[in-house]
Design goal:
With 249 residues, this protein is an alpha+beta fold. It is built from seven helices and 14 strands. The strands form three sheets. It has a six-stranded antiparallel beta sheet. It has a five-stranded antiparallel beta sheet with strand order 5-6-4-8-7. The protein has a three-stranded antiparallel beta sheet with strand order 1-3-2. The mean pLDDT is 93.
Length: 249
């Protein structure tokens, strides 16, 4: 484990201990999938302190909350705000990408760990961020590239702005994770195994180095740099012994 991972692991343990000793909820910042994998590695040292993930199904960057309503006698929501960034005049706006919005936010001097997912839709972006930074972004973000924008807080993302689910039906010789990754991204088996050696594969938020691990329905697999998909359904075996599975991206 490298120095950054050791520091992050120490941070998780400190937050868990603080929640237990001070009888209150504590929260991490937004975690990448690699950070989340580090969190799972820290669990044996965290012990029995309860925790909750802000969203482990749809969001790529999530928070961890230590503490539980049952033990503390109250509840506290995750300190996450959703910001809508939209052009002042959409008709004349540039075509803006995820990178454009992220770059504009980072240019404000904001650390990446206070920013969650950025969902781009039709020249607009819905940004998940820590509540403590929301007002700063609203007051200071006025341009994305050459496009003048305005920022406001919203309570939810409209369904039309959600990324449409893409389904893919594939046949695999087995439910080994390397075989599934190979078919999901049209990689050779050799290239698929190389991804494991390079520590690019995550299974349900955990770094996966075992390329022969068997997967099941509901599992989420990420190939860093390529994206994430879910095993939606195992459909059965063909006469030739191949297994049909449905993937959702």
């Amino acid at each position: 484990m490298d120095k950054d991972s050791l520091l992050l692991k120490k941070r998780f343990i400190e937050l868990a201990n603080r929640s237990y000793m001070e009888n209150r909820f504590t929260f991490t910042e937004f975690l990448s999938e690699a950070d989340l994998s580090c969190f799972y590695e820290a669990l044996p040292e965290i012990g029995s302190v309860p925790y909750t993930l802000s969203d482990d199904t749809d969001q790529e960057r999530i928070m961890v909350r230590f503490g539980s309503a049952e033990e503390l006698g109250y509840t506290e929501e995750f300190p996450i705000a959703i910001l809508l960034i939209k052009p002042n005049a959409e008709k004349f706006a540039d075509k803006l990408t995820h990178r454009d919005f992220l770059g504009a936010l980072m240019n404000l001097g904001i650390e990446r760990d206070v920013l969650g997912d950025i969902k781009v839709f039709d020249k607009r972006a819905y940004v998940f961020c820590h509540e403590k930074i929301a007002s700063y972004i609203i007051d200071n973000l006025s341009f994305v590239k050459h496009t003048a924008v305005k920022v406001s807080i919203v309570t939810e993302i409209p369904e039309i702005a959600e990324k449409p689910e893409i389904l893919k039906l594939v046949q695999v010789p087995s439910l080994r994770i390397d075989a599934v990754v190979s078919r999901a991204y049209n990689l050779s088996r050799k290239d698929s195994i190389e991804c494991f050696l390079q520590k690019k594969i995550f299974l349900n938020g955990r770094l996966m180095e075992n390329s022969s691990k068997l997967i099941k329905e509901g599992d989420r697999i990420t190939l860093r740099g390529k994206g994430r998909f879910k095993i939606s359904e195992v459909l059965g075996t063909t006469k030739s012994g191949k297994i049909n599975i449905k993937l959702s991206f």
